[in-house]
Write a structure and sequence with these properties.
With about 550 residues, the protein is α/β, with parallel strands linked by helices. It folds into three domains: about 170 residues, 3-Layer(aba) Sandwich (Rossmann fold), CATH 3.40.50; about 160 residues, Rossmann fold; about 180 residues, Thiamin diphosphate (ThDP)-binding fold, Pyr/PP domains (Rossmann fold), CATH 3.40.50. It has 20 helices and 20 strands. It has a six-stranded parallel sheet with strand order 3-2-4-5-7-6. Strands 11-10-9-12-13-14 form a six-stranded parallel sheet, sandwiched between helices. A six-stranded parallel sheet has the order 16-15-17-18-20-19, with helices on both faces. Helix 2 links the parallel strand 2 and strand 3. It starts with a strand and ends with a strand.
Length: about 550
Amino acid sequence: MKRRARDVMLDILRDEGVTHVFGNPGSTEMPFMDALVDAPDLTYVLGLQEATAVGMADGWALTSGRTGFVNLHAMGGLGNAMGVLVASKASETPLVVTAGQQDTRHLMTEPWLSGDLVALARPVTKWATEVRRGEDVGKALRRAFAIARTPPCGPVFLSLPMDVLDQDVTGAMPPSSAQPELGASPAAGQLAEALASHDPHRVILLLGDDLPAVASSGIVALAEAGGYAVFGTQLTSRAAFPSQHPCWAGVLKPDFAAMRDRLESADALVLIGGRAFVAYPYRDVEPIPQRMKVYHASDNPEAFGREHAADIVLLGDIGKTMHAAAKHLAPKRDKAAVRTIIAERTKKKAAHEQALRDDILADARKSPLTPDLAVLSVLDALPDTAMIANDSAATFGRVQELLVTRPGKYFFARGGVLGCNMPAAVGAALLHDGWVVSFVGDGGAMYSPQALWSAARYRTNVIFIVFNNRRYGVLQNIAKQLGCENAVAGKFVGMDIVDPPVDFQALAKSMGVSGAKADTRDAIAKEIAKAVARKGPALIEIRVA
């Protein structure tokens, strides 16, 4: 059977579970766009700039648990997307990213729109290659999807010359390779034996930044089997433990000295997943006390020993390994004692959170609102089923201890690249049955405002919350912490967004999105209620101190 390579490409996309193609097309992508004409089951989601397209695919992939697919335009389009690809690699988001290349028959002459796409993509992807024969398109795609979804997950890149996609190919669609099925680590019983020897009050479970939502039930089971405190990291791409659980103890700030203070009282640390010790700025401090026993569970062998030597390593499916360890541990622990510990944690957590709420609410009459109060006001007004996509530094204060994060319902732009969050929220909303809320600062909102147009075009239920302090606040705070000359002098060079101020309501309106401003706690609740009742995307700007 003879057909074109581009048709094989579409068959593989369907077989790999792709339902949405994210992109910004150009002339070198015309063969692929032509193929989509007769493919109503594949929705093309247009981003008005390539960073927006990749950001939407990232949010779609994290929400669906499948590999996202992106189609970019030539060298320039890939260049525009590079920042968000940096973030996707840091977040270990499975993506297959393609870009159209010029016709191979005149690449030697270096025609317009051509370039070394593979060299550009290689530093921010797991694998990058250019396909030079139509017969190889199917095989390359299958390999790309397999690599993208294998831990550590991440983006891969294929350069697709336009004449190659139009070439005739023969034979059946290349089959997909079976996914490696990891089981529980055989060391799960050894971990349980080790944990049983420690005082449960002096054991900490610390979650890495790469844990899938499906691992959550196993982590919860281990925490409940021992009554252990569970910490996360502030800079995590996704939630793997429900923040409302009594064992949840909060997040560790990205500061080695602060981490050391929190860990000093423990004797044993169970590190679950990949990186947990990400810090900025530099501190000449080791985050883990030398006397501490470290037990490390991961589905990625590259994780072991990367940050700290471990006394026990457990390689296997994280959720299954945690369930197995919990099963081994349960008979070794006094159930009544564990219930007492969890009850104590429940009471202490409730009292702490209420005191913190009261303290934050004491600033209710201040104008503009403090960042903590602004974020708390939004959280109080949101529907319970709302998914949060976050990259706002306004959430880094005390209010972070009140932030509701649930597995599969909370994502953060972990790579530190602005411009990811708003389009990621749009991509997530294409799948999420409910509201998606984007938390973004005024500076970050200007990196990919085109996401507003896509939100309106595809009628997504996204509420964009813009916390506006008219400056790069996190940058100014770091300058103060480091004692930089600009902070000492009170002259923050290039860190203000004041003259002229950005009119976010006008910006939203120009993109087809309803815009509003809310500067009090009551006004925030009112505007969120209006947005939820109206359906479709909305932007709410909140002025913060």
